[in-house]
Amino acid sequence: MKLERYILTALLMLCLTGAFAQVSLHNLRCEMLQDPLGIDVIQPKLSWEINSAQRDVKQTAYQILVASSVDKLTENDADVWNSGKVKSTASVYNQYAGPALKSKSKYYWKVKVSTNKEETDWSGVASWSMGLLNYKDWEGRWIGFDRFFPWDNQAEGRLSARYFRKEFSTNKTVASATAYIMGMGLYELYIDGKKIGDQVLAPAPTDYTKNIKYNALDITARLKQGRHAIGVILGNGRFFAMRQAKAYKVKTFGFPKLLLQVVIKYTDGSTASIKTDDTWKGTADGPILANNEYDGEVYDARKEFKGWSESGFDENKWLKAEYVQEPGGTYQAQMSEAMKVMKNIAPVAITKRPNGKYIIDFGQNFAGWVKFKVKGTKGTSVSLRFAESLEPNGELFRTNLRDAKATDTYILKGEGTETWAPRFTYQGFRYVELSGYPGIPQKGDFTGCLVYDDMKTVGTFESSNSLINQIFKNSWWGIASNYKGMPVDCPQRNERQPWLGDRTVGAYGESFLFDNTALYKKWLDDIRYAQKEDGAIPDVAPAFWRYYSDNVTWPATLLFVADMLYKQTGDISVLHKNYPAVKKWMTYMKDRYMNSEGIMTKDSYGDWCAPPVTAEDGKGVNADQKHPSALIATAYYYQLSIMMAHYSTVTGNGGDSAGYAALASELKKAFNRKFYNAQGYYGDNKLTDNLLPVYFGMVEEQHKEKVVKQICYIIEEKNNGHLSTGVQGTNFLMRTLTDNGRSDLAYRIASQKTYPSWGYMIENGATTIWELWNGNTAAPKMNSQNHVMMLGDLLIWYYENLAGIKASAPGFKEIVMKPEMIKGLDAVNAEYNSVHGLIKSSWTKSATDFKWNITIPANTMARISIPAKSAGQVKEGGRKATDVKGLKFIQMEHDRAVFEMGSGEYSFAAEL
After folding, report:
1. Residue by residue, what is the 3-state secondary structure of 18-71?
2. I need a labelling partner for 862 at 20 to 30 A (CA). Which of 275, 279, 510, 904 fits?
3. Is the sign of the CA dihedral 708, 709, 714, 715 positive or negative?
4. Per UniProt, which keywords does this protein have (predicted)?
């Protein structure tokens, strides 16, 4: 095989982390993008991506080598595992099957692939490192100060940061050094005065009584022979809760604490360990006077300790570190991406107000913080107050923040130009009120820092409709803003909670924009950890708020998201892992809330946040109103039963399948008896009441046409082309219409600029997605301007229906491409990086022709539907498609010519 024809990318799928090493055979070099450190997956999954300019490339076999060193990574000397040649088409999630992996050990691997064309050469070298696999591997003890200090604000839950330090020596040449750290609730680690890593707000939040995430950081380059110092700053995070007045509702875990272990390996083969114990020194009397996620950070630069994390610092006034009780949860490596500053945003305007303060406008609603430069006299206090929008008089609108103070304060030390950004807080904002700033602020002195999990943007989308494009951009910013080690509902007010119902279907759409797999696998763990012994699943997980309302729709997220992950990635382990928890919860709900008529009676929220008839009708009205619906609960429970009947077989629990199928059958009969009206609608004839049974397949075939007509009548006639759905209906709105031949009506809804619509939000200044359709008129108690729950299935529709990029087999091993031809939409250009590689769909149409450029990744195949009067009118690369080798004409389906094809780049044209 010619090397330039194949590029092999080796990926380490550690329960779907985004960590991987990329190798290129084209130029015979290995570029290490990330070396996963400290994993505790004892059988990691290995994946690779095959890129080739040839068409129809399919894997037929592979061979994996794993070794303890690069030198041993040969076919004859791989001392850990040689898979041998394995006949398989699977290039993703191939499980390591060698000897047991050892704590604190590094492993190197490479792969060779056989294809239907030829065999690749060996890939370059990738690697991973194991963490501390056993509880006993942690040699240190938890340290901290389990008490308030006189200057702590107990009433507001704003503690000063805790600082800890330890000096040590390395008297030999260091081969490798890794720091394993659990800093609760948030930490920053320093070696010899330099921060380690670019992660922020670490580690990812969890229910710390259930599990605690540790991070592993490579500090080899920092440890030369000589004297060194470790420094750690601890912030509150979610550990010391932001609000503790309602102990029955809000879960808190105690005062910040630390467990750290540095493992050093010397070139002579010896090892050393630096661990937390009572020889460490600590203080809470430092420059971070207060920190709290809701309220912000107060930093007094006059109290900085110069050289505090360097050797030789005078620590005599510091306290002896105290042993404290461990949090209680199991120790787990953080396999999801760390949060980082992912984008810097420059202000678009700075306006002076009559009161002498300034309003800084960043032009975009986002979540993060402001980094700024300032020069002034010692003791000058600069305050930054955050908001999403302005009052009509130009002042900050902050009523929707509720009691979140959302304020950062910096007190100058008076030593030249000072630069500062907070460490242990973030805010959701577009505007900042600046007060106390010495001199005239300049745009170049301020930088907005967008913070979210370090995941790749994997999808792009552009069309001929500028409004559709802007909604996509707003969605990207809203989704990114609300990734905070878990998917939260909003980033600005005193909530920021991981509500399950916001992501039931939304997570699916998000997956086309972001590589969010590791985040959502971690979140499913959080949900399972929050499940009660009797099976109950909360509405918020981790259960920072104790909301166990026993409804169907919010806990249903556990199965819906697991389903999404399996479909989008092909990793069946996510089903195996979550099936027992779903089964336990399904039984819990059935035993308690299904009545003798077969109806699921328990619901809490109904079609949450359905829009008032007009924006004016909702003016000043609090949207926090629950309208429980047995119809919605029963419909969802039916759909879950159908899914469980299927997944019981897929996961090897086939004995459950018949029971779930029978349950679904009875639910369908009971649902139609109870809720179907002979006039052709369900329930109260609300749009959502009709959408759910149609999408879930609950409507008797002889009635389906009537119900679909009723759906269209409500939208076209009663709503004048608008939606009238809350969260539950919007989850299935666009796909229900499209699946039933009304993609034109779905497009009309998506293109609206008047209330209620996504376009209405944009017309009223939104740069993200609102919580409410009438977010500009509703009472401010609940009108977040940066939410994602109202996206529903819109982004799924963008990719699967407008672009025509849809998985027909898990992980996009097989792809179905059938873009909707809608009057008024003349072009779509979309890309999606699947687990198998890049998929592209770029089409244009006119009154007379259709042109479509497609890219299909290696080791997959696609079935495409091209608008055409006949197969003979379809051309590929200027030739009749039926004459092109590798293109297989299947049949005509109405006005579409259907072809099957393998991987490659294709250019189609057809007359219309």
Report:
1. CCECEEECCCCEEECCCCCCCECCCCCEEEEEEEECCCCCCEEEEEEEEECCCC
2. 510
3. positive
4. Hydrolase, Signal
pLDDT at 703 over 70: yes
pLDDT of residue 28: 23
Residue 103 sits in a domain of what CATH number?
A: 2.60.40.10
Quick check: helix, strand or coil at residue 696? helix
Question: What is the β-pairing status of strands 6-13 and 358-374?
Answer: unpaired
Question: In 3-state terms, what secondary structure has residue 195?
Answer: strand
**What are the tens digits of pLDDT across the range 812-863?**
999 999 999 999 999 999 999 999 999 999 999 999 999 999 999 999 999 9
Is 237 inside a domain boundary? yes
Backbone phi, psi, residue 304, to 5°? -65, 145
**Could you tell me if residue 410 is inside a domain?**
no
Do residues 296 and 361 both lie within one domain?
no
Q: Which tokens belong to 777?
A: 């008129």
Q: Count structural domains, the chain.
A: 5
Whether residue 802 lies inside any domain: the answer is: no
Burial 594-606 (b: 16+ CB within 10 A, else e): beeebbbebbbbb
| CA angle at 141 for the pair 137 and 146, rounded to the nearest 5° | 150
Tokens of 636: 């969802």
Whole domain around residue 347: which residue ranges? 342-404+428-451
Strand partners, 183: 258
Q: Using CA atoms in the order 728, 731, 732, 738, what is the torsion angle rounded to 10 degrees?
A: 150
In this structure, are strands 211-218 and 330-333 parallel, antiparallel, or unpaired?
A: parallel
pLDDT band per the 50, 70, 90 thresholds, residue 877: very high
Average predicted confidence (pLDDT) for the chain: 94
Cβ burial of 673 (10 Å; 0-12, 13-18, 19+) is exposed
Contacts of 71 (CB under 8 A, 6+ apart): 77
- Please name the residues in contact with 458: beta carbons below 8 A apart, sequence gap of 6 or more: 512, 513, 514, 515, 832, 833, 834
Instruction: Give me the CATH number covering residue 757.
Output: 1.50.10.10
Which CATH number fits the domain that encloses residue 847? 2.60.420.10
Amino acid letter, 51: N
pLDDT for residue 820: 98
Question: Which band of pLDDT confidence, cut at 50, 70 and 90, is reported for residue 154?
Answer: confident
* Structure tokens, 600: 């699921």
Does residue 203 have a cis peptide bond before it, meaning omega lies within 30 degrees of 0? yes
Contact call for residues 204 and 335 (beta carbons, < 8 A): no
Whether residue 311 is found in the same domain as residue 183: yes
Element containing residue 650 per DSSP (H, E): helix 630-650
* Of the candidates 421, 435, 290, 304, the residue with the CA atom closest to the CA atom of residue 360: 435
Q: How far apart are the first and last CA of the chain?
A: 42
Predicted pLDDT of residue 8: 60
Whether omega before 542 lies within 30 degrees of 0, making that bond cis, reads yes
Beta bridge mates, 195: 190
CB neighbours of 459 closer than 8 A, spacing ≥ 6?
512, 513, 514, 799, 830, 831, 832, 833
pLDDT exceeds cutoff 50 at 25: no
- Whether 304 and 263 share a structural domain: yes
My answer on whether 214 and 79 are in the same domain is no
Is the domain of 243 the same as that of 305?
Answer: yes
- Interval 550-566: pLDDT, tens: 999 999 999 999 999 99
From residue 87, alpha-carbon distances to 82, 114, 572 in Å are 14, 9, 20
336, 355, 385 — which closes off a domain? 336
Do 120 and 221 fall into the same domain?
no
Do 85 and 156 lie in a common domain? no
Q: 802-823 burial string, b = 16+ CB within 10 Å, else e? A: bbbbbbeebbbbebbbbbbebe
Q: Classify residue 413: in a domain, yes or no.
A: no
